[in-house]
Design a protein that fits this description.
Layout (H helix, E strand, L loop, with lengths): L1 E6 L3 H6 L5 E10 L2 H12 L12 E3 L27 H6 L4 E4 L5 H9 L3 E4 L5 H5 L2 E8 L8 E15 L6 H10 L1
Parallel strand pairs: 1-2, 2-3, 3-4, 4-5
Antiparallel strand pairs: 2-7, 5-7, 6-7
Length: 182
């Protein structure tokens, strides 16, 4: 099913999304990869604030290439989500509503998604140039010294993703294999 949602989005909206749904996101999302996740996790351990309000927000696991002239961002494809699995449950427990990446997640992340009524979306790997066309603006808001891994605030319009793990724990990677074999 195709769905169009404004982000950030709430628990009720997350519960309506089902594994396999095509979703088009419009609004604000944030980017963070390995190094930024490590810093955010360390900040939480020290009792410090995160660089943005994580409640009901989405983190896109992405490190962009430099912007071309006249564009807010360069190629903006997803990175492998499992590299953030060590940090994701703690952020989900703080109210993070969604993540965008590519690839499988651990059982610990799946359980945190269920526990917090969150969603794991996938963006198509290898389609970074195409995905960047849905990004209207990009602003570094934290950890500028990390370069492409700095935390960015993105304004997106009709950003295409697919629900991989829904708030009930249904996993498209598992169900698709069963349907294909079955």
């Amino acid at each position: 099913m195709d769905r169009h949602i404004r982000v950030p989005f709430d628990e009720k909206q997350a519960k309506e999304l089902k594994s396999g749904d095509y979703v088009y996101l419009t609004g604000t999302i944030y980017t963070a990869r390995d190094a930024a996740h490590k810093r955010m996790y360390e900040a939480l351990e020290k009792g410090e604030e995160l660089p943005f309000d994580i409640h009901n927000n989405i983190i896109y696991y992405m490190g962009p290439s430099p912007a071309r002239e006249g564009r807010p961002i360069g190629s903006a494809g997803p990175t492998t989500a499992s590299r953030m699995d060590k940090y994701a449950p703690a952020l989900l427990d703080l109210g993070q509503r969604g993540m965008i990446g590519k690839g499988k997640r651990t059982e610990g992340v799946r359980q945190a998604i269920i526990r917090n009524n969150a969603v794991y979306f996938a963006a198509v790997g290898g389609a970074g140039a195409l995905l960047s066309k849905s990004i209207m603006s990009s602003e570094i808001i934290a950890y500028e010294d990390l370069g492409t891994e700095a935390v960015r605030k993105l304004e997106v319009k009709e950003f295409p993703v697919i629900v991989v793990i829904d708030s009930d724990g249904n996993n498209l990677y598992e169900t698709a294999i069963k349907e294909y074999i079955g």
